[in-house]
Amino acid sequence: MGIRGCALRIGVIFGLLASVPILAQESQLEPQDNQQKRELRAINRLISAIEDGQAAPNDLSMEWARLDVLMKVPDDSLYMPFAVTIDPSGITAKELTVYWRVVANEASTPAGAPASGGRKPGPFPYEDMTISTVAPAAPRVIRRYFTVPAGEYDVHVIVKELSPEDDDDPAPKVSYITHSVTVPDYWNEELATSSVVIAERVEPLAAPLTPQQQAERPYALGAMEIVPATDPQFSTADFLQTWMLIYNAKTDAQNKPDVTVDYEFYVTQDGGEKFFNRTNPQALNAQTLPPQFDITLHQLQSAQEVPLSSFPAGDYRLEIKVTDKLANKSLTREVNFSITGS
Fold it and tell me: Do domains 10-20+191-339 and 34-183 have the same CATH topology?
């Protein structure tokens, strides 16, 4: 017998994702005040020194945590939240600067174009910076986003304490990392999905976010915010909430798809893997989607909220199979999680 999986407010999210206010951006960072100008100068000096052979500092023990490929946006770009982790225990500053730059690497750089920014200031495929007040408990996970077309890129991230105005003050703590990413092509008409996001919770937004709030909370989509789970470890009292978008499904004359999504759970047992259970198949078609759904205007998505009360403690793999009945195509996605008991 399958597990009953609750749809994760599908009807509500559908309407909200019809017009998410996220635009592609070929960013050319222009500081707005003296504080931002001072921070950008310090960042550029640091990058130049590293390019000249200086070791990249990592005072805050920064590590790359994740990248999620989520949404198509204008100009054939993809909206991609990412996360880094830091050790906040040593932060003493009242404000923290986060800078990130996306640079095309040689694999996707057109002939004759520079493969990296070097010392030449912008433009980069994406570049941004935020200066935020440090809360009483500094964040361990820092999330931001960028939008770029399909290709191969390097993401440069700097997290630093605010630079002092007085040269006699102690040097700020700073961390700098680079991570290579592959951005897939969602414009080739092949069946595809976004990353599968395991959500810690899904919350309504009381009001639209400012641009800085959107940068700092990149999983806010429309009037809902998906808060990703930082560690896919749950108890039997929890729910497993998953969410993803489906792209390039074939449609009928009314621009309606006919897609089925199957969720199957496998448990690690005796050194191998064993089928554990499944939810009821999820149908996304003219009969189940809202009457106004039009795939040229709206995002096709699948979400589940599964109670874990019947799952014994252990390690699990969720296999998600997406079947496009009209195109006779299918693909699978998977996520791993563990249950520690009640």
Answer: yes
- Element housing 14 (H / E): helix 10-16
Q: Which amino acid is at 219?
A: Y
Residue type, 44: N
Q: Nearest 5°: phi and psi at 21?
A: -80, 65
DSSP 168-196: TSPPPPEEEEEEEEEE----SS--EE-PP
Alpha-carbon separation of residue 300 from 1, 107, 200, 285 (angstroms): 28, 31, 22, 10
The neighbouring-strand residues paired with 278 are 264
Q: 71: Cβ–Cβ under 8 A, 6 or more apart, which residues?
A: 20, 22, 78, 79, 194, 221, 245, 299
Residues of the chain by 3-state class (helix, strand, coil), percent to 5: 10, 45, 45
For the domain 34-183, what is the CATH code? 2.60.40.150
Scanning the structure block, which residue is given the tokens 């399958």? 2
Residue spans per domain, the chain: 10-20+191-339, 34-183
Q: What is the pLDDT of residues 138-162, one digit of tens each?
A: 678 999 999 999 999 999 999 999 9
Q: Kindly state the tokens that stand for 265.
A: 């759970």
Which residue bears the tokens 């931001």?
Answer: 144
What is the band of 116 on the pLDDT scale with cuts at 50, 70, 90? Answer: very low
Buried b vs exposed e over 177-188: b needs ≥16 C-beta within 10 Å?
eeeebebeebee
- pLDDT per position as a tens digit, 176-229: 999 999 999 999 889 999 999 999 988 888 888 888 899 999 999 878 899 899
Query: What is the residue type of 104?
Result: A
What CATH number is given for 10-20+191-339 in this structure? 2.60.40.3880
- The DSSP secondary structure of 58-84, one letter per residue, reads BTT--EEEEE---EEETTTEEEEEEEE
Sign of the dihedral defined by the CA atoms of residues 158, 161, 166, 171, in that order: negative
Q: Are the C-beta atoms of 213 and 264 separated by less than 8 Å?
A: no
Cα torsion at 234, 337, 318, 62 (round to 10°)? Answer: 120
